[in-house]
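Final report, results section. Input specification for complex C-07:
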Amino acid sequence: MDLFEFQAKELFGEYGVPVPQGRVARTPEEARAIAADFAAAGTPRVVVKAQVKTGGRGKAGGVKLAEGPDEAQARAQEILGMDIKGHTVHAVLVEEASDITREFYLSFLVDRAARTFTSICSVQGGMEIEEVAHTSPGAVAQVMVDPLTGVDGAKAAEIVSAGGLPPEAQEGAAAAAERLWAVFADEDATLVEVNPLILTSDGRVVALDGKVTLDDNAAFRQDHERFADPGSADPIEARAREKHLNYVKLEGEVGIIGNGAGLVMSTLDVVAQAGEAFGGIRPANFLDIGGGASAEVMADGLEIVLSDPSVRSVLVNVFGGITSCDAVANGIVSALGMLGERGEQVTRPIVVRLDGNNAAAGRAILDGAGVAVVEQNDTMDGAARRAAELAASP
Amino acid sequence: MAIFLTGESRIMIQGITGSEGSKHGRRMLAAGTTVVGGTNPRKAGQTVDLGGSAVPVFATVAETMAATDADVSVVFVPPAGAKSAVIEAIDAAIRLVVVITEGIPVHDSTEFWAYAGAKGNVTRIVGPNCPGIASPGKSNAGIIPADITSEGRIGLVSKSGTLTYQMMYELRDIGFSTCVGIGGDPVIGTTHIDCLRAFADDPETDAIVMIGEIGGDAEERAAAFIEQNVAKPVVAYVAGFTAPEGKTMGHAGAIVSGSSGTAQAKKEALEKVGVRVGRTPSETARLVREVVPGH
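Structure output:
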């Protein structure tokens, strides 16, 4: 789960990482009220920042300075509702403007290649770190962190010194690094990034931005739900999550159901490829119903996929391994029955490809059931072509 | 010979009395695997019935090893207890631990990987979140269905479970020396490269199939390794060409961020070093038939 900047800063605050004062506004009027509070406290200059889970919002015009409540309201008016790389801005963070003298970069992340944790630190912050790494690789330090020992004061000092931070910033930056590591380790984060980490004119080191990704696998021991953002999710994805289905909405016409993440991803590719011959037909979703593929899960899956009005045909691609194909076929037949009972008469064509254990028996069950909307195809490539063709036909 | 897992392997199961542990223990035994015991501290001294065979239950990995000469452990322990289970196996210095458990926090897997290193890498870790290892006709450690393929001379390494099965099934007439599901998590114990190295050295493996998917740069690194170290023919498949940026698709590993880690980049890196890359699983199987001697 990716956090919004304001959520990341809330966490930083809890762990004692210095952050600017600020609050979230969802309307221009709220932004005005927050700015008025700051003005009353003697800091009329504020920054209005779009809250979106993507980078490059500064360039897109999603971060604006404002002098006082009137300007804050006007800037919020401009930014709210803005589209930044496909993300609609539903909230802005209004915070006190900082007096920046230097900008640095600091992060902790999972290093997949080295199978450990790494800290990245650079004296050149405020721009994309990939760009800095490309143009001046010497300015970006990577320091491995042993998962068994973590980051103590000495390690934190090593990180900021490797990043080439100036002497006047090192103590404050090391203190921030040690606390940011605590966020990373204690919250089960896979990424904690501060860009920029700033040095203010009065010598303080402050996290001016924050990007945090939390590990969904750790939900059983963390209170990650407090950061959930149900309003922004696609409604079909939200309903799928309630049913514990692994569904991702895409822009296309062929609904996809399969078992196993790799096989489903592969099915998307094969459908997209086959769809080129039919005027650019694309897969409409990713849906992995897992190894079991029981009738109920199949019914839930079909219901979710068919609730997308852009779906014109469905491809069910199942490899019978642990669950054999006859069980899967029975599951499909009863799933269609269940949908009928729920009042969801299925009229859109469903192409089924069964392969693996007991494939012949599974195919015979589907043939014998005489369900008009279901047709079978023995190969993945053939089934994908047929599903694309059906989606393209008027 | 096969890699990592042979007919001589003696397998134990951590979490043998749980529903997954006992179900797959039965399946492993039915596939001819030597399953010698398992652990559950609360049921030590009892036996568990795995399809007619009474398999002894011990309190610890070390006790199981001492009593049964187990040299491979398959872990079915749920996520919350998985880290301590793997660390216990490492402490007992078992040769191989196969971690099937799905949903282990990445901080835990990173920690047990580091712990294995600190203990001198005596214990090879496969997984987590993987289907396991199958050396058809010899031994099966994990949840890979044994009866979809046959013994032969292709080596297979894959991040994905069902794609592994699909490929094993498509090439069941040629057969496999060993199939390794390395798992799709961001941090895994045994990598594509580890398996490529072992297959390159295995006299009973003639050709290698590698299945990758979007995310990370494991396939790119594997390509560099193949160029320098693997003379045997390698055929690859990469899933996830249509995956949108920034969305997780099932595996924690299957996520694309920015330009690196895309299926296209992986395909190009592999083709550049002479690896043939299929566009679909079936085409990949056809390419394998072209490179396997006698087919």
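The longest helix of chain B spans residues 79-91. The CA atoms of residues 133 and 180 of chain B lie 5 Å apart. This concludes the modelling results for the funded period.
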